[in-house]
Write a structure and sequence with these properties.
The chain is 46% helix and 15% strand. The chain contains 16 helices and 11 strands. The longest helix has 25 residues. It binds NADP nicotinamide-adenine-dinucleotide phosphate.
Length: 397
């Protein structure tokens, strides 16, 4: 490790082929590669060539594709390397249950919940990028981590910033959590302008380079909605203690306000490798080759209130938090279906929030989640209802 400190960690990367996954591998390379990190398993979905190459580059023991149709090509790509291949949901669980002390949870969407939960239950320390674990399963997920005995280190830049700004022995004095949001590419657009945008336009984030789902979610502010619920469970705060502020430069990654009026923030250039590096080496800090902030060149930092009329996702997150129980799972599942319908051209950009709200209203009376089965049942029902709503709308059009 370039800082001179010694670090030896055995790690599994769930979602290694994605935006967070590839950045994680870059950070590992910067920190010394195999001399600091032993890789137990890597996983992907459809990008088999990259997955096999990554497994060979880092000397992983196991590579898993979530899609069983790709098992043969993954096995063929790894032939003669000694690296095991596996596929499907059971393969993901196998990867999560390998005896790695640390797991980077970077699968996109609810597909990441079951394997991350499996890792949490066996006591792994979790570097958590997959926000859907907390949005859907909430305190059940946090309790599973606690019961397993592992740590939960946020990777989302906002939550990493809050985690870094929290003084451990002063948690009772936290008054508010302030999540910053870039506002995305449509920050100043009217609803009329947003109505006709395509996925290609919506995915062009002004500051961050990220995967498709989170980029579209940044444009609709659904990503911020998910982050509000994530923050509630991660930091144990009440819904009314969570504020969102639009900060177009994405330099202040988020803040914690204390009862004495102090506000602590974490700042940096918009580069996920800082939050990833922090999570992978926690509680150490180490040297990373990322751009440094040049305060003399930063002419200004702007902040503005979010507009919940143009971006109703924020309002939906508050509703989900106030209702509690499985409502996070319902909102998240409906939004995932709506997201896929948007990127495949079945619905317009603004309809994503409409679909999520329709499904949430139709399931507003659901009982609190007592078990993970309740969460998975609500998730499944919300997906079916979202699909049905989209089909009905298509037929009516
Ligand atoms: N990107 C960011 O900067 C960022 C920042 C903060 C938080 N996050 C969160 O981190 C998570 C990952 O985001 P990302 O942007 O890295 O996503 P991404 O680029 O789309 O990558 C997702 C990863 O999940 C895999 N995957 C896709 N569908 C899957 C399925 N059904 N089952 C199992 N694996 C599947 C992908 O495999 P293939 O590549 O083979 O398809 C890939 O390895 C999300 O929850 C996101 O909200 C991301």
């Amino acid at each position: 490790m370039t800082s001179g400190a010694t670090l030896k960690r055995r790690l599994t990367i769930l979602g290694s082929t994605g935006s967070i996954g590839t950045n994680t591998l870059d950070v590992i390379r910067q920190l010394g590669g195999r001399s600091c990190f032993e890789i137990a398993a890597v996983t992907g979905n459809g990008n088999i060539e990259l997955l096999a190459q990554q497994a060979m580059d880092v000397g992983a023991e196991l590579a898993v594709t979530a899609d069983e149709r790709h098992y043969d090509s993954l096995k063929a790509a790894l032939a003669g390397t000694g690296i095991e291949a596996a596929a499907g949901k059971s393969g993901l669980i196998e990867a999560a249950e390998r005896d790695a002390g640390w797991v980077m949870a970077a699968i996109v969407g609810t597909a990441g919940l079951a394997p991350t939960l499996a890792a949490a239950r066996r006591g792994a320390d979790i570097a958590l990028a997959n926000k859907e674990c907390l949005v859907s399963a909430g305190d059940l997920f946090v309790n599973a981590v606690t019961a397993g005995g592992g740590k939960l280190i946020p990777v989302d830049s906002e939550h990493s910033a809050i985690f870094q700004s929290l003084e451990d022995d002063q948690r009772h004095a936290v008054e508010r959590i302030v999540l910053t949001a870039s506002g995305g590419p449509f920050r100043t657009w009217s609803r009329e302008q947003m109505a006709g945008v395509t996925a290609d336009i919506a995915r062009a984030h002004p500051n961050w380079s990220m995967g498709l789902k989170i980029s579209i979610g940044s444009a609709s502010m659904f990503n911020k909605a998910l982050e509000m619920i994530e923050a509630r469970h991660l930091f144990g705060v009440q819904p009314d203690q969570i504020e969102v502020i639009v900060h177009p430069q994405s330099i202040v990654h988020s803040m914690v306000g204390y009862t004495d009026g102090s506000v602590l923030a974490q700042l940096g250039c918009p580069d996920m490798r800082t939050a990833i590096g922090y999570a992978l080496t926690y509680p150490l800090r180490t040297k990373l080759d990322v751009e440094r902030l040049d305060f003399a060149k930063l002419s200004r930092l702007d902040f503005e209130a979010p507009d919940e009329v143009r971006f109703p996702a924020l309002r939906l997150a508050r509703t989900a938090m106030q209702r509690g129980g499985v409502q996070g799972a319902v909102m998240n599942a409906a939004e995932e279906i709506a997201f896929h319908a948007f990127v495949t051209g079945r619905i317009g950009f603004l309809e994503m929030a409409d679909i999520a709200e329709t499904v949430m209203e139709s399931m507003a009376d659901r009982a609190p989640a007592l078990t993970m089965e309740d969460v998975f049942a609500a998730d499944g029902e919300a997906r079916a209802r979202a699909e049905e709503t989209i089909s009905v709308n298509e037929k009516a059009a």
